[in-house]
Specification:
Blueprint: E1 2-11, E2 14-24, E3 29-33, H1 40-48, E4 55-60, E5 63-64, H2 70-76, E6 77-80, H3 92-97, H4 106-114, H5 120-128, H6 144-158, E7 162-166, H7 174-184, E8 197-202, H8 205-211, E9 214-219, E10 222-228, H9 234-240
Parallel strand pairs: 3-8, 3-9, 6-7, 7-8
Antiparallel strand pairs: 1-2, 1-4, 4-5, 9-10
The chain binds adenosine-5'-diphosphate and magnesium ion.
């Protein structure tokens, strides 16, 4: 479904990623972990087609990414950026309904933007993410966590074959983060359609092993490990976060301690 061969990215003189080889199969739920600057966002941006590789190739469904037209690409891959990329002047509802634009004709998209027509699926997704009371508010007036949920809702409405998420729960409080990761990774039955294939960058290694099937560890732009979540061990994570003081072990005495390695 997605294949990177010898893919690398250099911004000017700064080397950000690779070269890496990677194969992603339909339906996989992949967490990408690594410290800040490891190349997580660059990897997602390469797969989305937002940036082109400096060397190597990126293929989606067996076709070179540059050969896929933008509109078709939006049905194959959807991307939630770290900065959400919402239209601040529009209501939360209009931002969420914009997830339909890859499927709808230009006329229908414009009509939905200008007229008070409401998309039922968008309403359902918004309700599921606890946004029903904020749908008519200007997006710029919402809190960071609410804006993050609007961006997630737009992506659920878009429902692409590959859902790319750059730190999808970074602005959410922990209980909401858990609930949303369950939805994104299809761990709970929901009334809304859940993403098919997911690749998410995460700050928390705990979330990656708990919710995702496969975990890719990046360090200095290279893949340090790529394995089933159940096989990721302390030493794998240590190799990524050597310089930090995070405690990778379970801490049963203090529930508030940085418990980034719990899996029940
Ligand atoms: P992560 O998401 O893991 O924090 P990034 O992929 O954002 O890492 O960045 C990887 C490296 O590439 C970093 O050294 C970063 O400073 C650099 N980088 C990322 N984007 C740009 C850019 N647009 N221009 C120059 N350097 C960049
Ligand atoms: Mg990043």
């Amino acid at each position: 479904m997605c294949r990177l061969v010898g893919a690398s990215k250099t911004y000017g003189v700064r080397h950000a990623l690779g070269p890496i080889d990677l194969e992603i199969v339909f339906g996989e739920k992949i967490g990408v972990v690594g410290s800040s600057g490891a190349g997580k966002s660059t990897l997602l941006r390469l797969i989305s087609g937002e940036i082109t590789p400096s060397t190597g190739t990126v293929d989606l469904n067996g076709r070179p990414l540059p050969s896929i037209q933008v509109r078709e690409r939006s049905r194959i891959v959807g991307f939630m950026h770290q900065q959400f990329d919402l239209v601040p002047q529009l209501s939360a509802r209009k931002n969420i309904e914009a997830g339909n634009s890859g499927r709808w004709s230009l006329f229908r998209t414009l009509a939905a933007l200008l007229l008070p027509i409401q998309d039922l699926n968008a309403s359902e997704v918004a309700r599921h993410l606890g946004l029903e009371d904020h749908l008519n508010e200007r997006t710029s007036r919402l809190s960071g966590g609410q804006q993050q949920r609007v961006a997630l809702a737009r992506l659920l409405v878009q429902n692409p074959e590959i859902t790319l998420l750059d730190e999808p729960v970074s602005s959410l409080d922990p209980s909401l983060a858990l609930q949303i990761l369950e939805t994104l990774c299809g761990k709970t039955k929901t009334p809304v359609s859940t993403p098919k294939t997911v690749i998410a960058s995460l700050h928390s290694p705990e979330f990656s092993t708990r919710f995702f099937d496969r975990v890719i560890g990046l360090s200095a732009g290279l893949i340090m490990f790529d394995k089933a979540a159940s096989e990721v061990g302390d030493s794998d994570l240590r190799s990524l976060y050597q310089e930090s003081n995070l405690d990778f072990t379970r801490n049963h005495e203090n529930e508030n301690a940085p418990q980034i390695w719990g899996r029940d």
